[in-house]
Amino acid sequence: MPEKNGTTIRSNRFGAFEGVFTPTLLSILGVIMYLRLGWVVGEVGLKNALVIVIAANLITLFTGLAAASITTNIRVGTGGAYSMISKSLGYEVGGAIGIPLYLSQAISVAFYITGFTECWVSVFPQHNLLFVSVITWVALLMISYSSTKLAFRLQYVIMAIIALSIISAFLGKARIEQAVFAWHGVGEVPFWRVFAIYFPAVTGILAGISMSGELKNPERDIPVGTLSAIVIGFLVYLSMTFWYARVASPQELVANRSIIIDISRWRFLVIAGIMGATLSSALSMLVASPRTLLALSKHRIIPFSHSFSHINIKGEPTTAILLTALISLITLTLGTLDAVAGVLTMVFLVTYGMLNISVFIEKSIGIVSFRPAFRIPLIFSFLGGVGCFWAMFLINPLFGIISIVIICGIYFLLLRKEIERNWPDVRKGLFIFIAEQAVKIASKLPYHPKIWKPNLVVPIVQPVKWLEVTELLKSIVSPSGRIDIFAVTEPRSETSPEAISEQAHDKAETGRLIEKDIKNICDSLREENIFVSSHIIESKDIISASKIALQTLKSGAFPPNILLMQLGATDEEDMLVRSLVDSVSPQEMGIMLFDLQPQTGLGSMKTINLWIRQGSPNRDLAILTALNLQRNCDATIRLVQAVEDEEARLRLQEYLEHLKKITRMPGETEIVVLVGKFDEIVKKSPSADLNIFGMSEEMNFTHKRQIATSIDTSVLFLRDSQQESAIV
User: Which listed residue, of 74, 288, 380, 726, carries a Cα 20 to 30 Å from 308's Cα?
Assistant: First the structure.
């Protein structure tokens, strides 16, 4: 029974036959069978008609198998296809499919009512079309609003009428006496166009699946009911295809689309069958679509969710039923059915396709949680998904594109919406799987400097110093580089809080503050769409722990290629820097040492002085870093160097001009060669926001601090790994 708060439905009222098989089969045995299948046979002949029927039903069968596989792996809950897709690909994907699916189901009620009314008026031409439509709508609303069980019991009567109408057709008199089949058709309409006209006959399998929230055992009822209906529906269509080819010539089948009425034994039974088929489809949709809306409301996907999640004492989603009925009534009165018919078919096909894709993804990525009791070969879900999307563009490419654009638009809107996240979702697993496969392939391919991009590893001792330079980190690695951050903290005491000494308490508090600061640094970078990961290591030996962390990251699937540290201010900090730099082979990783100017910081980052000497072994990393900073900060690069005499100045000027050309630096890049001793020139170098220098093998920290102090700007010292190239 439903809960008193009116938000949960689990009445467990229906079994496989009543809740799934009957509505699904009645949705399949519709007007296409009565009024279009004969035309299909007449156009393309028996041989090609069998190809169309088998191909279309295979797509439906694969989709039914996919649905069966999903339902035996999860607790489906309310919402049918929406619930299945959401629990595989997330709320956003489920909602993007579920919202247009619900609207399509609601509007489809008007389609089926119109089909019933047109058949009624053909028998009683004196009756008004709109009046009959509204009366039919009122009757269906009263039935669905009062009791879903009553609606399903009425479908037994309709099923009996359809069965009798088929018997009446088989007992009818054939128009042609000879015992031959119409193997070849008229051929006035292309084969794939005929396929497109027939395909909606097999797009009704969601009627039973949508009742998932009210089934006694959905994990069993959906597979049994859906697959049984698909198989029996296929056998009926196959038999009717042979029957049409036997009873009339192709010309008659094409000229008279209602020939089944004319040649059946009891004409009124076929008419009643057509009316019953359309009426049952309308009733199925009027019962099923509110359940989709109910599920969307439960998960706060749509506005006014609280109202639409209301359940009455009988277990009926009354508000959802009323909205569905209102949408169908508006559609009836506006008479816009033909304008949106194509889009509706596309939404159903997208839904079927996504069911197949969900199974294909979960099975492909090999997650342990996907262990359905009903297993299907991977190729089935692949063919089902491809078949659905192929049929979309076969039927109407324009409507297919419109449908996909609408669904994508809803998806991106839902991404911006705060939605509950405690929900099974394999999207992350999918991307991890793709990354794993890509790494396997990449590991077998040779490295070339052409693919180099900055991937930093940043050991952090005092996070507060780095909070001010996250913009520099972003500018170095954007748009596609990575950052690995790690920090070493003192081990926390495992004793009770009362037994912790004041000193131990201070260390624990420091550790918590470091973790908080690291998180703030990472969050600020992630907001800029930077791929960043962080690692906190507890150890008393900072140097040893840092070395181990660095070695671990170097041996990972995505190793860093630059070690970036801040230039220390004490001997202890120098020792850490020296130890980590010494642990990095020159062939493995570049080195960056950064010193932030305490007063001006990074300034406006509009001018970068790049110090390049002729024959420098560090020029590639320096140039690539400067170019990335120039691009990301919209800065100007200035090539700067000091020489001791005028002759050397001319040679270096020529060298830098050549270097600028072969490394494809921006045209506005300046070249400044100053005459004098380096230590004196540095003090009066052109003003800039950042100065970049090459770094020798000798780690003379005192000299580097002197340069940073004398130049009075933020400074970046670099050393190549010989894995970079600025001229490729």
Answer: 74
Secondary structure (DSSP) of 190-242:
-HHHHHHHHGGGG--THHHHTTGGGBS-HHHHHHHHHHHHHHHHHHHHHHHHH
Q: Which of 1, 12, 14, 10 is nearest to 225 (CA)?
A: 14
For 301: left if phi > 0, alpha if psi spans -120 to 50, otherwise beta; the answer is: alpha
Backbone angles phi, psi at 470, to 5 degrees: -65, -30
Is 439 a member of any domain? no
Structure tokens, 465 = 């110093």
Q: How far apart are the first and last CA of the chain?
A: 70
- Judge if 306 and 356 occupy the same domain: yes
Is 440 contained in some domain?
no
Question: Same domain, yes or no, for 549 and 674?
Answer: yes
Last residue of a domain, one of 415, 440, 467: 415
Q: What is the pLDDT of residues 154-181, one digit of tens each?
A: 888 889 999 999 999 888 876 655 545 6
3-state DSSP assignment of residue 666: coil
How many Å apart are CA 266 and CA 262, to the nearest integer? 9
Percentage of the chain beyond pLDDT 90 is 19
Higher pLDDT, 507 or 332: 332
Query: Residue 21 domain-assigned?
Result: yes
Element spanning 45, H or E: helix 37-71
Closest CA relative to residue 386, chosen from 66, 94, 83, 102: 66
Residues 259 and 407 in one domain: yes
Answer yes or no: do 389 and 498 share one domain.
no
Measure the CA–CA gap between 334 and 89, rounded to whole angstroms: 36
Dist. CA 210–CA 206, nearest whole Å: 6
User: What DSSP assignment string belongs to 489-531?
Assistant: EPPPP-S-GGG--HHHHHHHHHHHHHHHHHHHHHHHHHTTT-E
How many domains are there within the chain? 2
180/249 Cα distance (integer angstroms):
10
Residue 440 tokens read as 């396997």
Count the neighbouring beta carbons within 10 Å of the beta carbon of residue 338: 9
Residues 309 and 176 in one domain: yes
**Segment 649-702, tens digit of pLDDT:** 888 999 999 999 999 999 999 999 998 888 888 888 888 999 999 988 777 888
Same domain assignment for residues 157 and 297: yes
Distance CA 66, CA 52 (A): 21
Element (H, E) at 693: strand 690-694
698 in the same domain as 579: yes
C-alpha–C-alpha distance, residues 146 and 21, integer Å: 22
Nearest to 595 by CA among 699, 693, 456: 693
Whether residue 628 is contained in a domain is answered as: yes
- 311 φ, ψ to 5°? -125, 135
Phi-psi region of 12 (alpha: psi -120 to 50; beta: other; left: phi over 0): left
Instruction: Give the whole-angstrom CA distance, residue 560 versus residue 424.
Output: 32
Q: Residue with structure tokens 């078919």? A: 345
Domain at 185, CATH number: 1.20.1740.10
Residue 353 sits in the same domain as residue 492: no
Give the 3-state secondary structure of residue 67: helix
Pairing state between β 607-611 and 714-719: unpaired
How many other CB atoms are there within 10 angstroms of residue 322's CB atom?
A: 14
Two structure tokens written together for 133: 């439509």
In the block, which residue shows the tokens 């996240």?
421
SS3 148: helix
Q: Are 16 and 224 contacting, i.e. CB atoms less than 8 angstroms apart?
A: yes
CATH of the domain at 546: 3.40.50.12370
Cβ-based neighbours of 477, under 8 Å, separated by 6 or more? 453, 454, 455, 456, 483, 530, 628
Range of the domain at 636: 449-719
Which of 366, 398, 415 is the last residue in one of the domains? 415
The residues, any chain, with a CB within 8 Å of residue 406's CB and separated by 6 or more, are: 100, 343
